[in-house]
Amino acid sequence: MLERIHILEGRQIVLLNIDEVIAIIRQADEPKAALIARFNLSDRQAEDILEIRLRQLARLEAIKIEQELKELRESQGKLEDILNNPGSLRRTMVKEIEQDAKTFADARRTLIQAEKKAVAEVKVVDEPVTVVVSEKGWVRARTGHGHEASSFAFKAGDGLYGTFECRTVDTLLAFGSNGRVYSVAVSLLPGARGDGQPVTTLIELEAGTQLLHYFAGPANATLLLSNSGGYGFLAAVENMVSRQKGGKAFLTLGEGEAVCVPSHAAGTTGSKPVLPATHVACASTGGRILTFEITELKTMANGGRGLMLIDLEDKDQLAGAAAYTRSIRLDGIGRGGKVRDETLEIRSLNNARAARGRKGKAADLGFKPNAVTRVE
After folding, report:
1. Does domain 219-376 have CATH number 2.120.10.90?
2. In the CATH hierarchy, which top-level class contains the domain 2-86?
3. What is the pTM of this model?
4. Which of 111, 152, 288, 295 is geometrically suited to a Cys-Cys bond with 360, CB 3.0 to 4.6 A?
């Protein structure tokens, strides 16, 4: 179309100067070059002038040229509007589709009806398995229970974070420094051959976020969740599971607060039932201990900040909180950076008994606690 418009514009110029054009063609040694120089024609236009018969430039032809040019320019304008204006493009498409529907429409032959959405389910065989997590977040699953921790090897510079005896139908939870909980089906974890696979390759971790703690167990397991600011609550594993690889926002953290080690409060682990915890033990980094009945806590299905577990003194933080029935273990760092731990039985724990939210009792531990875990 554009080429045709270009040719016709050249012929219009010639029509206005027909006598001079004829003279140039007759007299010039190089008529093509002369036409280009005299009338500012393009090479293609000059070639067309030399090829057509002069009678095609008569008055009658001039009218036809003007009429054809008008029609072509109108078409050009419409096409450019369609190309440059999304609204015009949509209107043109609708108009053409409606016209085609009128022209070619017939009764539908294919039956269209609503059907149930097809869901492909992969059956997971319910078997005992031990989930092994390293300190640097590498994870693997070994068939069966009762494995010795010393039987697991790790990469140089890495070590054991923990083992969880559970089932292939259970879920691994990873707790991020941003308060989100990430979940991975145990059935999707790599086998025990080799060093396993980084948990970060199985989830979508936000930039700047670190994975701090892990737990693997059934949906009905209840965990005690706490933060270094001294707050905590109870929640079931099923409430923390998400289909999204980006995890689920669950723990509300204040500025400078961190997630403490989760404590298994109730539910099953593997094939063994966990005796429901009756009390909670809190330990501060300053060496204060407080214990109270677990019924003083709230269960929060949607997560949050929870209730104050212990009244912390200035510059003190919660080292951890554990749900227990008889005993807990305190881990920490002693003089010279030596790793220390001490198990407190129910008699010692009863000495620190008070209502939730109190300051607790100073304990002569000889080291600074940094974690509290349930023994039984």
Report:
1. yes
2. mainly alpha
3. 0.67
4. 288
